[in-house]
Design brief:
Strand order of the largest sheet: 3-2-1-4-5-6-10
CATH architecture of the largest domain: 3-Layer(aba) Sandwich
Number of domains: 2
Strand content: 15-25%
Radius of gyration: 19 Å
Structural class: alpha/beta
Largest sheet: 7 strands, parallel
CATH topology of the largest domain: Rossmann fold
């Protein structure tokens, strides 16, 4: 078999499903690798299940990971499987184990099987400890300084990836999703802010009353499709000068912005926004936009989904997901 497959770990998660869809559109051969395959979500975002390889597997299982890479002729890996921030905070041992050992397994499999490039989905939280009121600019030169356990797992994985790449001769491309991700995906895997956006969109499309808590200030948020776009570009672009890229939206978004954007799209919106409560993660909050210059110049990345367009797409996809017949 030709070595032209692209393995997507976490391929039925928020960014993964869109990355798989985009790879198909570009004529690539994606192989979905996930501990629990969400066929319905893949279909809801337009993926033809017959056109992709679907493999149920755990990134903590190195022999399984290596054999799948070998059997499916994998040449590049997009590594997105991870435990989310608040889940790591709630279950630190299992969260750190999945995020760090899982990444180590992907890197070791890449070494053993001769993979040419690993693309790693990281987080803007890795540098938030370096941000303060005097910070004028955020870009890829800002020092790593993880302020939470989750951020530490992502920073550790970045360092492991760059060291493995230097030592064993493959490329490691890190894409950091700036601010926070949002979009339709399983509720259990969402952060508090993602759950709030999902609850607002769900209430809007169903015309239901809802009281939503929003315990955050404005920050840069990235829609899942834009995150996937940046990730796929990092996977496919050749001769990259740098190996670290920030994927942002260029918008500072707060709860009121989401509310007003939905209000413009849905008549008789019955949402009440509660702004009380403590943010569930110890991340400092400073409303500073990321500088996307490097990503624009080297990857050709521009966000396609400003907030209002993103929420419209979110609502359309959520309707498809929730129309699934019950069994």
């Amino acid at each position: 078999m030709a070595r032209n497959g692209i393995l997507v770990t976490g391929g039925t998660g928020l960014v993964g499903v869109y990355a798989v869809a985009m790879l198909l559109e570009k004529g690539e051969r994606p192989i979905v690798y996930d501990v629990k395959l969400n066929d319905w979500l893949l279909q809801a975002v337009g993926v033809d299940l017959k056109a992709v390889g679907l493999v149920q597997g755990d990134i903590l299982d190195l022999p399984r990971l290596s054999s799948v890479i070998r059997e499916h002729g994998i040449n590049r890996v997009i590594h997105l499987a991870a435990s989310m921030g608040e889940e790591v905070q709630r279950q630190p041992y299992s969260g750190v184990r999945l995020n760090v050992l899982g990444t180590l397994n992907v890197l070791e499999a890449a070494r053993l099987e001769g993979i040419s490039r690993v693309i790693y989905g990281s987080s803007g939280s890795t540098y938030l400890g370096s941000v303060n009121k005097e910070t004028k600019k955020i870009d890829e030169t800002i020092p790593l300084n993880p302020p939470s356990l989750y951020a530490a797992t992502k920073a550790s994985s970045e360092l492991l990836g760059h060291s493995y790449a230097q030592g064993f001769g493959f490329e490691f491309i890190c894409v950091r999703y700036v601010g926070g991700l949002y979009g339709p995906s399983p509720v259990a895997l969402k952060s508090t802010r993602e759950q709030a956006i999902g609850a607002m969109v769900r209430a809007a499309i169903k015309g239901q009353a809802a009281s939503i808590q929003w315990p955050y200030g404005p920050s840069e948020l990235v829609y899942g499709k834009d995150a996937a776009k940046g990730t796929v570009l990092a996977c496919l672009k050749e001769n990259l000068k740098d190996h670290l890229f920030h994927i942002g939206s260029g918008e500072l978004i707060g709860g009121d912005d989401v509310f007003q954007a939905l209000k413009r799209q849905f008549n008789n919106l019955k949402i009440t926004l509660q702004k009380k409560g403590k943010a569930p993660l110890p991340h400092p909050e400073f409303p500073i936009l990321n500088d996307n210059s490097r990503t624009r110049e080297q990857l050709g990345y521009e966000p396609d989904y400003p907030l209002e367009k993103a929420l419209g797409d979110y609502a359309t996809t959520l309707r498809k997901i929730e129309s699934r017949p019950s069994h």
